[in-house]
Each structure stands twice: as C-alpha cells, then as structure tokens.
Amino acid sequence: MKSQQYKAWSVVSMSTLAFTVCFMIWMMFAVIGVPIKQQLGLNETQFGILVATPVLTGSLIRVPLGIWTDRFGGRIVFFILMLATVVPIWLLSYATEFWHFLVVGLFVGLAGGSFTVGIAYCARWFPRERQGLAMGIFGAGNTGAAVTKLLAPIIVIGYGWTTVPKVYAGLMLVTAILFWFFTYTEPAHKVGGLVTLREQLAAFKDPKVWRYSQYYSIVFGGYVALALWMTKYYVSEYGFDLKTAAFLAAAFSIPGGVLRAVGGYFSDKFGAHTVTWWVLWVSLLCLFFLSYPQSSITIHTVDGLRSFHFGLGPTAFTVVMFSLGIAFAIGKASVFKYISDDYPDNIGVISGVVGLAGGLGGFLMPIMFGALVDLTGIRSSAFMLMFGVVWVSLMWMYFTEVREMDAAARGAKRAMAADVIE
Asked: CA dist 390 to 64, 216, 288, Å?
C-alpha cells in the first residue's frame, strides 16, 4: 500500500508533466502561426484571430471542467480531456484554408482547459498550508510555452510546419497513457452530491471571484497573449528569423512557468494579497517601458540640427520581458492562493471561473493587439493596452482590499489604545 504522501507527489509530478504537454499544444500557433501567416497572406488582425482561436475553447471549457472535476475527480476528467484532443491535433497538419485552422483550432484548444482540472486535482492532495506550493509546482507546466518555442522551430525548419501537429499528437497520446498509470483516485476528494450545481454556479455572483478574475486576466491572460504574440513581434520589430525570434521569446515564457512554484511558496509565506499587490506594481513598471514606441526627435541647436533616437533595443527589450515573465509567474500562483484560502471546498468551479476570465483575456488580447497594429501602425500598442489593464487591476485592488485592510488596521490600533487606557 503506497503512502498518501507518495501518491500526492506522484499526482503533482504527472499532472505537471501532462499540463506542460497540454500547454505546448495550446501555444503551438505561437510558432507555426508565423509560416501559416506567410502561406495564407494574413494581416495582423487575422493573425491575432488565428493564434487566439485555441485559447477561446480552452477558456470556455474551464467552468464545466471545474464542475466535473469537483464531482467526478481530476484523474478521469484529465485523462479523457487529453485523449479528446489527439485526433484534432493530428488533423491540423492537413488544414489548408484559414477557416480550416479556425475550426480545428477550436478543438485543439480543449487542451487549455487542463489547467482547471489539474489545479483542483493537485490541491486536494495537500493541507491548506502547502496548497500554494503544490499549485505553484503544477502551474510550472506553463513552461510548455517555452518548450514549444525551443522545439517547434527546429521541427519547422527541418521538416515543415505540418510535422509539428503530428509530433504533438503522438506526444499527447503517450502522455495521457503515462498519466493514467502513475496517478491515483481519492474518493474523499470528490464533492459529489454535497454541493449542488446551483451552489457551484453561484460563484458567478460573488464579487471576490470577479476581482480575482480581473487579476488573473492580466497575470495569466497577459502571459498567454504575449506568449502567442512575441515570436512574431521579434520577427516584425527587430527582423530576426523564426528560430532566433522563438528562442528570444522563450526568455519571457520560461520564467512565466518555472517560477510559478516560487510564487506559490511566497504566497504561502507572505499571503496572496501582499504578493499580488507587488506583482501588479512590477508589471506596471515593465509595461511602461515596453509601451514606449521606437521614436526619433530632431532638435534645433546652436550647432545645427541634432537627432536622437529613443526605444528599446532587442537586448533591453528581452531583459524587461524576462522581468515581466517573473512577475506574471509569481502573480499566477498568488491569485490561486486567494482561491484555496477562500474556497477550500469548491476549488474546481472557482478555479474554472477565474481560469475562464484569464483564458478570455488570452483570447481577446492577441486579436486586440493585431487590430491596434493595423489601426495605429505602432507595434508597442500591445503593451499600451496591457498597461491600461494592469492600472485598472491596481485601482480595483486598492479600493477593495488595501483601503479596507488599512481601515481594519487603524481600528485595531484604536481598540488596543482604548484597552491600554482602561
């Protein structure tokens, strides 16, 4: 009889591996989308729709997946979900028209729903004081975005983009089989009939859930959007080839996944509020510099005209993106620490709702990125948009959490002073 601790870590390990593969597949348009764009002659908005389409279904499916995970257990739901994507991934290599990619991409996007299943499945194997770390380790599967940026360009250059879906379909099938044989089911983790569907869906009426959804729409939605967008950004803005562009784009994706476990540790130690507050401020600072477009200014001086150029070069840009990736990684973990603290008996559906918001952010932002570039001609307009979203999140957090906590702290001090006087 294997110990409960052994089972718990086996579940986390295999779930993290499975989520990494699912995220690789969810993000593969970040690389193969570039040659597809050239092949079909797409504009920026159409490219945004292409890369965002899988994100749509991966987002919408999260709420029902969260409900099913609470009711039936994470193991069976995760396994069936992975098997359901194998055929659509394979068929993607035979797509030739724009609408082909959109339709098949919707089914491929189901892989993105794996996060909601895995986060609830893993969390329930650990006590509350260690759930942040467990969820952070599982969330490190976001590194799949970086793995795709390192692996897919090699396949594209050597064998063409159509080989990537075939390789990924085989990888998904093997992963699903390994997952089934090295994970476990714990009946006590199922909500079953204890919580009704109406009670689960009541999460949509909870203002805290909407606030956490807003935070997640930037730390996860922004991560997904930029992970999809950055390879093409390096190609268009700095003129790199596909392989180099994908490699540099991985500098953002790697910390966005690997350091999520660190974010879980910090959230357990310092609390979800404190960590999320600082994550949003660091993100705002990074996006301020990223938003500034390449600019030139000419000044009339006593010695004649002098011109100056402003803008981030590729090295500085990559360093700032790396910093933003670290902030997003920590923030993704801290937001889910809120959920495990506030909703310990309903993690599946709450994570589904919050994950839906994050996924929809990842779906809408690439389309908006493309539309803004087509409209303004300024590639850094993508970061201007994200700067605004982060600012909204900070203001919401200040008025709903920071001010209330400050007022509570002042009230406690006055009560202590009154006790001393008495």
From this structure: 28, 10, 11
CA nearest to 224, candidates 369, 400, 35, 46:
369
Calculate mean pLDDT across residues 353-358: 80
Q: Are 252 and 230 in contact (CB under 8 A)?
A: yes
Are 331 and 96 spatial neighbours (Cβ–Cβ below 8 Å)? no
SS3 label, residue 304: strand
Q: Are strands 295-301 and 304-310 parallel, antiparallel or unpaired?
A: antiparallel
**Res. 282 pLDDT band, cuts 50 70 90:** very high
Q: Report the alpha-carbon distance of residue 334 to residue 271 in Å, rounded.
A: 8
From the list 189, 183, 67, the residue with the least C-alpha distance to 125 is 189
d(CA 335, CA 253): 19
**DSSP bridge partners of 299:** 306
Kindly provide the b/e burial profile for residues 326-353, where b requires at least 16 CB atoms within 10 angstroms of the residue's own CB: bbbbbbbbbbbbbbbbebeebbbbbbbb
Measured from the Cβ of residue 197, the count of other Cβ atoms closer than 10 Å reads: 10
Indicate yes or no: pTM above 0.85.
no
Rounded to whole angstroms, what are the CA distances from 340 to 1, 96, 179, 264?
Answer: 29, 44, 24, 11
Q: Whose CA is closest to 212, among 202, 223, 224, 220?
A: 220
Tell me the C-alpha distance between 389 and 304, whole Å.
43
Return d(Cα 160, Cα 147) in angstroms, integer: 18
The dihedrals phi and psi of 305, each to the nearest 5 degrees, come to -80, 135
Give 70-127 as a DSSP string.
Answer: HHH-HHHHHHHHHHHHHHHHHHGGG--SHHHHHHHHHHHGGGGGHHHHHHHHHHTTS-
Nearest to 273 by CA among 133, 91, 406, 83: 406
Q: What is the signed CA dihedral for 366, 370, 372, 378, rounded to 10 degrees?
A: 110
**CB contact set of 336 (below 8 Å; sequence gap of 6+):** 119, 132, 135, 139, 351, 354
Chain center to CA of 263: 14
Residue 227 CA to residue 31 CA, distance in Å, equals 10
> What 8-state DSSP symbol labels residue 402?
I
Q: Is residue 31 within 8 Å of 321, Cβ to Cβ?
A: no
Q: Which residue has the higher pLDDT, 401 or 233?
A: 233
Whole-number Å distance between alpha carbons of 161 and 155: 7
